[in-house]
Specification:
The complex is a heterodimer. Chain A is an alpha+beta fold. Chain A has three domains: 63 residues, no CATH class; 125 residues, Butyryl-CoA Dehydrogenase, subunit A, domain 2; 149 residues, Up-down Bundle (Butyryl-CoA Dehydrogenase, subunit A, domain 3). Chain A has eleven helices and eight strands. By secondary structure, chain B is α+β, with helices and mostly antiparallel strands. Chain B has a domain of 144 residues: Butyryl-CoA Dehydrogenase, subunit A, domain 3. In chain B, the strands form three sheets. Chain B has a four-stranded mixed sheet with strand order 1-3-4-7. In chain B, strands 2-6-5 form a three-stranded antiparallel sheet, with no helix packed on it. In chain B, strand 5 and strand 6 form a beta hairpin. In chain B, helix 7 packs antiparallel against helix 8, helix 8 runs antiparallel to helix 9 and helix 9 runs antiparallel to helix 11. Classes of the chains: A alpha+beta, B alpha+beta. At the A-B interface, helix 7, helix 8, helix 9 and helix 11 of A face helix 7, strand 9, helix 8, helix 9 and helix 11 of B.
Chain lengths: 401, 342
Amino acid sequence: MTDADDLRERVDALLAEHPPETTERLDFLRARFDAGLAWVHFPEGLGGLGLARGLQAAVDEQLVAAGAPDNNPGRIGIGLGMAAPTILMFGTEEQQQRYLRPLWCGEEVWCQLFSEPGAGSDLAGLATRAVLDPSTGSGHRDDTWIVNGQKVWTSSAHIADRAILVARTDPDQPKHAGLSYFLVDMHDPGVEVRPLRQITGEAEFNEVFLTDVRIPDSNRVGDVGAGWQVANGTLMNERVAIGGGAFPRESGMIGKVAETWRTRPELRTPGTHERLLGLWVESEVARLTGTRLRQKLAAGTPGPEGSAMKLTFARLNQELSALEVELLGDDGLRYGDWAMTRPEIVDFTGKDAGYRYLRSKGNSIEGGTSEILRNVVSERILGLPSEHRVDKDIPWKDLPR
Amino acid sequence: MTELTLLPDDVEQDLRASVRKALEKHSPTERLNAIYDGTDEVSGPLWSAFVELGLPGLLVPESLGGAGATAVEAAAVLEEVGRAAAPSPYLTSSVVATTALVALGDTTILPLLASGEQTAALLVRPTALRHGPAALTTVGLPADVLLLPEGNALYAVRGATTTPISSLDMTRPLGEVDLAGSERTLVSDDAAAAIDRALLTGAGLLAAEQVGLARWSLETTIEYLQERRQFGRVVGGFQALKHRLADLYAAVEQADAAARYAAATLAADDPDAPVAVAVAASFCSEAAVHAAEEAVQLHGGLGMTWEHPAHLHLKRAKADQLLLGTPESHRQALAGLVDLPA
């Protein structure tokens, strides 16, 4: 029996034991996780079956067709795309057992505490400090870290239960060497979340202030001082999550513009037609590149190729949304609503053309600016010389700030 | 529907390796300049090597002496041909003319093409996207058999006179045909669909050649920028150049995915082939020109010389951009295929 046949039988068995129409949503999701059908490429016992990543799509399709509930992936994207692979790759068995199931089932929403006001592209220069509490002893897994600092651009922080955090544990080391990676309880009394209003009017991101936040050492991921390596694993996954994946034709921004083109023939001009066709071709090619990348990843792990995908994705979203505003003419001047809201789910292709135009500006900044990604591609894929770095070997505490 | 695979398998990798070896031996770039000066000592021996590898018969059914392979294998050959900017009738004879004859059920000419004894060329305008009137200025010459469209009919013509034309890209000969004194035999009186199929296949597989051109330009430029020193450092370390190469890399990877999808749809006779080909033809031809232009610019003065091979790829890429439909004409065709009317 092939893996695909075996999976089909397992899904049938899950549906038979837990009929979606009579099973509570959370109970169904937990049963699906326990059956190894949450993410089949994860190991057995952690929601998977140790199979190829590419086999997941058929499982999802079969469950959708049977009317099974999903885990609302749009709401828990950071957990699924970043926290989970990191915990799987670098976490202890105890951490994996504790966190992955509620993460996947959506019982615990995760956010990411990486960027700081003083550390954007230069993430490794971050200043949030984690210090071992002297009263809990030292060198033991029951030690406690005390964290102080400020994080920014944290999506979902206002609904999050947990966070992945990179903090400086040794300022005497050069910047990359003195970082450690932690899992944080967002309900700790020292965590304060404030909305950060953005150019669209709403606040999908937050600033997070950390004041004497206590983290047990058992929630450290990777060795003390290995935070940079762990964080890089997370970021590779983020870029794949943003730029990669398989989608049907005309999904995303091109679908919006094509729909406007088809339903509003009075707007058409020869110039916009040529631009639309050019962008349609580029969108389709980007989609095929994502498909090919996903086929490559089916057996492996994300590499820097995701960075090239994200560059293209950002540029196309910006050009398409700009075209749509122009295409709409008089209507392009309308903007739905500037009200300050705090959305739980962000849809780059949601709302109106003006919103999409403004929101897409973030696509070339978030998750690595396009400029940094071009460095990543040229250095790690093409093997060109690294940028001249004056701060690499100096203790972090001695760097000018 | 199962998803078409966009990754090479072992058979393709082996084929690619042997084609590359033949090209490196018989068509090194330093021998190509002579073609521009009127001496072609490359295409003859290269064709013999291709014949030895059985390449001319890849798309010909086994019953007629071919290999019964698919567009995916032919695309692998063409990507290598593009990489080398090699002079070869592979596209015009072994892909376009062969596809038309296969579609028409020919059994007399195909064995000669499969064995490599003869080559053929379809007499259409070089920029033709669809079946239309014959053109007497055409690429892929000299060929032993000319396929002449007349209305819906297709004739096989032998004994025509062709006069070579000095062309932008001398690695793909262009000629003027004089039919006086030639002999013609009817291949089919209902050939329009077969010709469309041949042109579609040609445009889809030309995209693979364009990927080869683009990849050569990218790789050669990276190599050079890692050696060239100015201002006391390797110039590939300057961010202005690194960022251009990062963008070029992204474009080449995308072109590769687009060309592979086009070849896969042609191989599978997938109904999405016309869309896939229009997308690949539009994108890859521009990517190849862009890559070749970047190669010239980023090689600085060296890129402008007759001695450096960048010009061979630039000329081939620019000529390829017009061949079998310009990017704009492919996008206009796409407008009808995907319901985005003007």
